[in-house]
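To: structure subgroup
Subject: Chain for Friday's discussion

All,

I'm putting the inputs and outputs inline so they're searchable in the archive.
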Amino acid sequence: MTANTSAPAAEGTVSLSVLSRAAAPAALPVMEAAAYLGVSKSMLDTWRSRGTGPRYVRLGTKVVYRIAALDDFLLANEHGARNDASR
């Protein structure tokens, strides 16, 4: 029988195992958002300055993109044949 060597986390702290199971971030910085969309950072910057890109959040001087806004942008700009049974 092996002893449990992990001490419980002190009250008011989060154990490392809880941090490793943290959910994915809800928002991405500009470089990661550009990669998520498959475009360059400069293209994303251009869209933002023209007001044609995905919705974003400004946190002081930092700009982040919510993943839900990126997904909405992709859906809104989706083109191609639709599988429409009413035709």
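Points worth raising on Friday:
Strands lie at 27-29, 57-59, 62-66.
The first strand starts at residue 27 and ends at 29.

D.
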